[in-house]
Amino acid sequence: MAGGCRAPSSAPTVSLPELRSLLASGRARLFDVRSREEAAAGTIPGALNIPVSELESALQMEPAAFQALYSAEKPKLEDEHLIFFCQMGKRGLQAMQLARSLGYTGARNYAGAYREWLEKEG
């Protein structure tokens, strides 16, 4: 382990109860990294769909370009709860790791993913 590596303030994984309370209090931003087709068939309310294949370029865009493309404000590096999810959890994890590597320290993965959400909330 490299020294001087500060642990992130929040765990990289978010559970459904925590996700629920973050969403209820408006403190989380949710990103659906599944394909457009998957997201069109149903997603978690309030989620912004950015397929994992375009996430890297999206997160490196100028804010105005991001806004124009996704009709949403680009997340900031210091934003605290940037929660990524997919269908089963794997792409969400990739997305979170990618966002963290780009400096988004608050990137997190909703491990239960859409499958769990659908089961419990759908």
From TrEMBL:
<feature type="active site" description="Cysteine persulfide intermediate">
    <location>
        <position position="86"/>
    </location>
</feature>
<protein>
    <submittedName>
        <fullName>Thiosulfate sulfurtransferase like domain containing 1</fullName>
    </submittedName>
</protein>
<dbReference type="GO" id="GO:0036464">
    <property type="term" value="C:cytoplasmic ribonucleoprotein granule"/>
</dbReference>
<dbReference type="InterPro" id="IPR036873">
    <property type="entry name" value="Rhodanese-like_dom_sf"/>
</dbReference>
<dbReference type="InterPro" id="IPR001763">
    <property type="entry name" value="Rhodanese-like_dom"/>
</dbReference>
<dbReference type="GO" id="GO:0050337">
    <property type="term" value="F:thiosulfate-thiol sulfurtransferase activity"/>
</dbReference>
<dbReference type="InterPro" id="IPR042457">
    <property type="entry name" value="TSTD1_mml"/>
</dbReference>
<dbReference type="Pfam" id="PF00581">
    <property type="entry name" value="Rhodanese"/>
</dbReference>
<dbReference type="GO" id="GO:0005829">
    <property type="term" value="C:cytosol"/>
</dbReference>
<feature type="domain" description="Rhodanese">
    <location>
        <begin position="24"/>
        <end position="122"/>
    </location>
</feature>
<dbReference type="GO" id="GO:0070221">
    <property type="term" value="P:sulfide oxidation, using sulfide:quinone oxidoreductase"/>
</dbReference>
